[in-house]
Each structure stands twice: as structure tokens, then as C-alpha cells.
Amino acid sequence: MTIKAYLQITMKIDEDKRGAAAKVYTDYKEPFLNTIGGALSKEFLIRDEDVQVMHGFDSVEHANSYLKSDLFLNDVFKGLQPLWNQAPEVKIYQVA
After folding, report:
1. Which superkingdom, per the lineage (predicted)?
2. E strands, the chain, where?
3. What is the mean pLDDT of each run of 10 residues along the chain (96 residues)?
4. In this predicted structure, what is the pLDDT of residue 1?
5. Domains contained in the chain, CATH given
């Protein structure tokens, strides 16, 4: 399958909490890839000012569906929320 959409979640997380964020990423990467419709890739990106999780999907519809899934709402979101300095920035891009 080819990636047709990206879901980008950018989070302001203090450096001392980034290990905990990486653990949430690692814990849920395989369940994401194995159970979420259209999921093709997931990467954890770190910059000085923030961290990002970039998700690759086969469609924009599947990217939107993931944000409403039990895995995202009950596991990933709840695991990351205490680590944020502010609400994350969520963007979905369609590949041209």
C-alpha cells in the first residue's frame, strides 16, 4: 500500500518527560499498525522545541477515523495528556 495521508500530532513536552512520551509511542506502535484501518507507518520525531508523531495512512478518512478510535482515545491520548505543556496541534495532510 502507498501512503496517501499523514496525521501529524505535535506536542510541547518538557525534555525530562520525553522518555515517558517515547514509551507511550513504543507501547502502542504495533497495536496501531496491526489494528487501525489503513495504518501504514508511525514515527516519533524529536526537536528541541517539541516532539511529533507522524502517522502514515492509506486515506484521509482512515486518519480521521483513528482520532476517534478506542486505541487513540483510551490509550494513546490518556497516556500522553499528562505530559503536555499545552494542547497538541493535530494536522492531517493529503499526499498530492
Report:
1. Bacteria
2. 5-11, 39-46, 51-57, 89-94
3. 96 96 97 98 96 98 98 96 96 97
4. 84
5. 5-94 (3.30.70.100)
